[in-house]
Structures are given as C-alpha cells and as structure tokens.
C-alpha cells in the first residue's frame, strides 16, 4: 500500500492515515508520494537530499518545496448560552463554538479555571483542521459524594491548544444549582421524660437537613392538649445548614400532678419554615410523691453561743423553720432572761412563715459588760408563740469577757538597778514593756527619791507603747556630792501611770567622794623636801663645808688620833657640822620613805632634820642653809601630821 510523507516533519505514514501521528498535520494537503510495496529484492534507497542552500534552478528540481513555518494561535471560542443548570442527578450541558486559526491541525483542551470542588467538566472531541469551525458539547456535572449547595456562581473556562498550551482563550459561564431535597427531620432526645416531684425538665432537639442542598430556618414552638406546659427554646429560631445538622435545647415547666398521682402529657414540638411545619412528639411522665406528715414549727438561734469581748451588744438571727409544715404560720416573738440583765430588740416581733420555708428575724442583745479582766456567762432564750397558743423556745448563751487593762500586763524596768558615781549626776534607762499586752498603753512617767532632796528629770515624760513593743525613756538624777571620803546612797522610785492603773520600779543611786587629805599631805611632804634640799646645797657650797675641806679635816683628825695628839677644836667642830649635814640628807630620804606609812616616820625625820640644821649652824658657824632646813622641816612635819589615819 502506498505511504504518505508528512510535509511538516517528514514522518512516513500509512496511506490510509489522514493526520500525522507526530505533529497532527493533515496529510491531505501534503504532496504524497506513492511508494510501491517492497518485494524480495527492494530497489536501492533513494539518494540523500542535497545540502541545504538556495536552489540554483527550481524549475528542474523534482523534489517538493521545503516546509513553510507553522503558526499556532489561540482558538476562537464562543458560548451559545450564558447559563447552565446543574443538579446532582442531571449534569448541565451547553455547546461551545471553536475555530482553529492556526496553520496546523490542533486539538484543544477545555477545563475549568479554579473550579469548585464539587464541579467536574467533560467535553466532546476538539480536533480541528486549520480554518475550520466545530461545535463542541460540554457537560458540567456534580462530583459523586460531594454536596453541591444551591447557588448561582460564575465559572471561568479555559480553551488551550494541545500543541502550545500557552495559547488559550478564556470564557465564563453562570452555573446554577437549584434547590432540591426533602424537608428536614426533627428528632427529640429523649422522647420520653420522667419527672418525679419536679416541674422542670429539658431535652434536646436535632434538625437533620443532610438530604437537602440548601439551608433552612425553622421557628420552634411547643404545644400540649391542655395548654399548661411552658417551653423555652435556646435558640427559638434555628438555622440548619445545607447538608448538615443543628441542635436546640428545650427547657420546659409542667404543673405537677396531685400529690401521690401520676400523669402523662403529650408535648408536640413544631418547627416551621416557608415550606411548612415539621414536628416531633415528646411524652412527659410526671409523678408527685404523697404529702409528708406535717411537722411542728421549730425555732433555733444562729449562733446559739455568742462570745462578746469588751462589748455589751451582739446580734443573733432567729430562724423559724416551717419546712415540715403545709400551711403558713404566724408567730409573736419575745425574749426571756432569767437574770434580768439582757435587753432584746427584734427587727419584727410578729412574723409570718409560709409552708416549706424558713423565716429569719434579727434580734439585738444588750447587756452590761463585766469589769476589766473578768468574764461572765448569761443564758437567755427566744420564745415564739403561735396564734393558737402553741409555744416554741430556743435557748442561747452570752459569754462575756473583758480584756485586762493594758497596765496590768505591762512591766517597768530601770537600768541599771544600782548606779555608783563620783559626780553629781547619774543617768538611768527606764523601759516600759508592753510585749504581753494586746492594746496600746499610754502612760506618764514620774520619779522621786526617798529623801526628796535629789533633782530628777525624765525625757520624755509621756510614752505610748504599742502592743508587743518596749518603749524607753531617760532618767537623770542630780544631787550634791557628799563630804570627801564619804559615800551617800538613796533609793529612786519610778512610776508609770495610766488612766486605770500604775506600775512602779526602783533603783539605787550611790555617790562616793574621794578623801583629798592624804593627797595634800603627800604634796606638803614633797614640798618640805623640795625646800630643805636647797639649804643642803647652800651649805655644801660654803668654803667651810665644801667636800675638799671636810676631806682635809677628816684626814687631820685621823692623823691626830694615830699620833695620840689632841685634835684642834676647829677641826672637831667642822667634823661635827659635816656629820649633822649628812644626817640632814638622811632625814630627807626618810621623809620620802615615810609617805607610804601613816606619817610617823615623816614627822620624826622632820624633827631630826630641824635639829640637824641647828647642829650644822653650831658646828660650822655658817647659817646660810638654816632657814631652808627649818622651813622645809616644818612643812614636812605638817604633811606628816596630815598623813595620820
């Protein structure tokens, strides 16, 4: 069979083929060459085509002209209608007119641009020869298993070239999904409600619109044959989405049946929309217990025991319990006090209490509180008398107490307790201790001494001591010093006084005066020694008593004694004067040594010193140092006298 050669791509095709299977070029326009069916000895292949280039002589070239470049254009498309109706059971169909302006045969793809999830598109064959027009049937269908809500929407359509997908023509069509589906179903959960001794109940409503593709709005209502059941819906108007469910809560109140009886009521709940009502029935099974036995009225106090601290007024609630009764009671209230020391003040002396309820009346109790630091217990009762003479009584107790005066738990301390001073003044710290108290303490401080002769000052004189704390004040005692060498002691009494009490504390103030007599005695002895020594120095500087003269006299006397000669009188007197001068120096040392004793040695040494001074004068005849010796001896003697104990 003869073959056809595609003029566009050169692909050989079967002679019966109308289009090239590679480029979809219509082969009817191509210069086809019949090629005989090959035999056992095929002819040699045709010579290769000449190299590309301009032909020198086209009139003598037996080969066909070279293929001209093809042009792919977007199709020309138009809709024969602007609206299509699509349902779940029937797809929507419309026709599309296509024209191929390309130079090649083209096949077109028709699809939706950004379609909704529930919409699918199919179409018939779209292969077109160049410059031809074809009507294509397009079908829009609802995808299985997906609900298409009733709506009207505009859907973009794209017609693309299969050769060049970028060559496309946009269109749009309005898709209408009509409403379909039965009315919603109404279900009550539960549909049987049992009420025992109660009048209120509740149940749930479920509206099922899953079979419809459009939303519904139902207004809810409830009726019963007797018209006594009151129903409340939340919400009263329910919007049920397309293909969905909605719920509503129903609370109702039904009058109870007679005591000990059962009653069944049929409650019909209706939901109404534009298409009509839907309804469901709920059965109410009610039961009322037999009436309990009527109990007498009871009376109690809240609280029954009232603790009162530092006050004489308290409030109590009188509770009238008529929960066991079946009818209203009216009572007159009053108070009783065996001791006659409590006053009663009722908010209402007459009270009416309905059946199966409680009544409350406030009463204020007034009494005299006990004295500070004391306690007392006072019983009382409240009496309720009914109109028929029945009497009910409730007893209570007042526990009264009065906190002790803050001064009773406070303590007073003076620091130090014993003060010894050598001056005129002494200082104390006065502490008011309120750590054991529970109330602030306000006190005034005062202080006196036992003889009333000392001057005392407190700073500050008034203290405010908070509970659990200690406050301090300063006390200064001033008194003249006692005589020298004596001691004076006196007791100082400090008091802290409040409006209701007083606390006291004592301390001792002792003054000691030093004895200055001994000091003066020592000074006089030292002064006497200081006066005496210059006299000794003056004598030693005298030519008759200088050390060289005395040394020569002593040697002469020793020589006279060895040679058994009678010494000269002048030498003897000089030796005696030197001995007295030495004794005078020794007395000076004894005076200083006598300062450690009672002055006896000082007095003795002073007398000897005076005598020695006279002896020096007699022996030497030099009286230059005698005044110093006598005056110093006298002063030292006086100091020795003062040293006597």
UniProtKB/TrEMBL annotation:
Coiled coil region boundaries: none
Q: Which stretches does UniProt call biased (Basic and acidic residues)? A: 55-69
Residue ranges spanning the membrane: these are 519-540, 572-594, 601-618, 624-643
Pro residues: bias regions: 39-54
What are the boundaries of the region Disordered? 34-69
Keyword set for this entry? Membrane, Transmembrane, Transmembrane helix
Superkingdom of origin organism: Bacteria
Q: What is the protein name given in its UniProt record?
A: BACON domain-containing protein
User: Taxonomic lineage of this organism?
Assistant: Bacteria, Bacillati, Actinomycetota, Actinomycetes, Propionibacteriales
